[in-house]
Amino acid sequence: MIKRIDEMLKIWAQDLHQLSTVSDRGSTGGNIIATLMACKGELIRGTRGSRVLLDESADIELIVHKHLPPRLALVVLEHYCNDESFLSQKLKHCACSSRTYYMRLHEAHEFIQGMLMGKAA
């Protein structure tokens, strides 16, 4: 795995897929729109010490959902957005061995890094 990409993906998952804001209407889950509605548009980014800019989170979201091959996107989503499952459950969902799982995760890191560097160039 690429350490910097791993950190960015962890923060991306926290920012966009695991937001859990409790308001007088209850929990909003991971939906950013629901979170904005619940806090009446006054969402302060970086309350978790975010090191990834909002633009980078949006870029990563687009890369994962639109550009990554489906088998790589599935591994990324399982690894970073599914904290509730055990590794064995993630492997079964991705239909691959542990070795293949981590190879795909590394391949996804390289793909994402390439896309982010291509955007900057």
Describe what this molecule looks like in 3D:
By secondary structure, the protein is mainly α. It has a domain at 3-16 and 52-120. The protein has 6 helices and 2 strands. It has a two-stranded antiparallel sheet. Strand 1 (22-23) and strand 2 form a beta hairpin. It starts with a helix and ends with a helix. This is DUF1492 domain-containing protein.
Q: Termini distance?
A: 23 Å
Global structural class = mainly alpha
The description of the largest β-sheet is: 2 strands, antiparallel
The percentage helix is 55-70%
Strand content: under 5%
Rounded mean pLDDT score: 80
Unreliable parts:
19-28, 47-52
- With strands numbered from the N-terminus, the spatial order across the biggest sheet is 1-2
- Provide the gyration radius in Å: 15 Å
Assembly status: single chain
Organism: Pseudomonas veronii
Protein name: DUF1492 domain-containing protein
How is this fold's topology laid out?
Layout: H1 3-17, E1 22-23, E2 26-27, H2 32-38, H3 54-67, H4 70-81, H5 87-94, H6 98-120
Helix pairs in contact: 1-3, 1-4, 4-6
Protein name: DUF1492 domain-containing protein
In brief, what are we looking at here?
The protein is built from six helices and two strands, in the order H-E-E-H-H-H-H-H. With 121 residues, the protein is mainly α. The chain has a domain at 3-16 and 52-120.
Labels describing this entry:
65% helix; 121 residues
